[in-house]
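Per your request, structure below.
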């Protein structure tokens, strides 16, 4: 684990967002931040250049949130973990087609989330090293 990794949390429930941020600190990540409003996620990713975004996939915005995650991943090359309320076959196919977007159902298991955070950051690091070697 690299404690210097930047992680943004976008969660519609403030208590869950604070809990996630606290959990990241417990896992040793010192550079996590909560995005106060969903509408600010893209701007914060552009400005802060995080390695990972943990996003709530709100049921009422369902597909919109998934599209937003895919756009963030493609535009800023940032890994995304979607906290989802429901899983459809279409969502599974969409996520499987992307290398840096992960899903975890709510209520999520903390150990599973920790594993996904580590996996996402490790993949990001390996991709960066591969790109540097190719240059």
């Amino acid at each position: 684990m690299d404690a210097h990794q930047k992680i943004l949390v976008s969660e519609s429930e403030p208590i869950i967002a604070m809990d996630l941020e606290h959990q990241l600190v417990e896992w040793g990540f010192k550079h996590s931040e909560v995005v106060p409003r969903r509408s600010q996620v893209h701007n914060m990713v552009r400005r802060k250049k995080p390695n990972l975004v943990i996003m709530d996939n709100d049921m009422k915005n369902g597909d919109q949130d998934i599209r937003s995650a895919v756009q963030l991943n493609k535009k800023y090359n940032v890994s995304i973990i979607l906290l989802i309320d429901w899983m459809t076959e279409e969502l599974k196919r969409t996520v499987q087609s992307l290398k840096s977007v992960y899903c975890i159902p709510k209520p999520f298991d903390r150990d599973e989330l920790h594993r996904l955070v580590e996996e996402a950051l490790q993949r990001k690091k390996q991709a960066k090293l591969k790109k540097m070697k190719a240059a």
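The mean pLDDT is 84.

Regards,
D.
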